[in-house]
Design goal:
Strand content: 15-25%
EC number: 2.1.1.206
Strand order of the largest sheet: 3-2-1-5-4-6
Number of strands: 8
Bound molecules: S-adenosylmethionine
Shape: globular
CATH superfamily of the largest domain: SPOUT methyltransferase, trefoil knot domain
Distance between the termini: 20 Å
Enzyme class: transferase
Protein name: tRNA (cytidine(56)-2'-O)-methyltransferase
CATH architecture of the largest domain: 3-Layer(aba) Sandwich
Radius of gyration: 18 Å
Function: Specifically catalyzes the AdoMet-dependent 2'-O-ribose methylation of cytidine at position 56 in tRNAs.
Order of helices and strands: EHEHEHEHEHEHEE
Subcellular location: Cytoplasm
Number of domains: 2
């Protein structure tokens, strides 16, 4: 989102093989729903590559970073830290406070994969729950970002995309950017299941 301060998502922990798809989806969800950057553990290179590839094709701006010092990164964060956890305070109760804090500075949103150490709960400015039921980091992140941005992220414009999906009631149309909506050809412009790949 083009907020005055950055919104960054940190994926804490990654088990290569087992978590590849979830870590990729954390990054893609962060990008699609208004964050400016995702920070992944340095063993998640394959996920980083996929997210960068989608950004190259479908647009940005969106940054992907790999770091081996996630604890130091969160500890040194100069802004507000939100940790998404089923044990936290209901998002609907704290979203206003989080938004107000974000109006004054950058926001780091931490989502777990493997078990999140308890110091995260203590260090976070907000431990936020999207329901107090166990589910997924991708679902939690999506609902949280939509609440944070109050739906404005759905209207976002994308820069430097080389393709764009044309919304249709039925069918699939992807056009190279610059083409008129109704034109044929392009990346899957005939309504077939070509192009995209996301
Ligand atoms: C599948 S859970 C596993 C958590 C792990 N068992 C633990 O104890 O930390 C992975 C991540 O999903 C997110 N998550 C799961 N349920 C959530 C909820 N109800 N609200 C917010 N985030 C949630 C949290 O960020 C959590 O770290």
């Amino acid at each position: 989102m083009q907020e005055s301060h950055g919104t960054v998502v940190l994926r804490y922990g990654h088990r290569p093989g087992r978590d590849d798809r979830m870590t990729t989806h954390v990054g893609l969800t962060a990008r699609a729903l208004g964050a400016d950057r995702v920070v992944l553990p340095d063993n998640a290179g394959q996920s980083a590559e996929t997210i960068r590839d989608i950004t190259d094709r479908f647009g940005g701006p969106f940054a992907v970073e790999l770091r081996d010092d996630q604890r130091a990164f969160t500890g040194g964060w100069d802004g507000t830290v939100v940790h998404l956890t089923m044990y936290g305070e209901p998002v609907q109760d704290v979203e206003g406070e989080v938004r107000a804090a974000h109006a004054d500075g950058p926001l780091l949103v931490v989502v777990g994969g493997e078990k999140v150490p308890f110091d995260f709960y203590e260090e976070a400015d907000f431990n936020v729950a999207v329901t107090n039921q166990p589910h997924s980091e991708v679902a939690g992140l999506a609902v949280f970002l939509d609440r944070l941005f109050e739906g404005r992220e759905l209207e976002r414009e994308w820069a430097d995309a080389d393709r764009r999906v044309v919304p249709m009631e039925t069918g699939k149309r992807v056009v190279e950017t610059g083409e008129a909506d109704g034109s044929d050809g392009g990346a899957g412009g005939d309504g077939s299941d070509r192009g995209g790949g996301a």
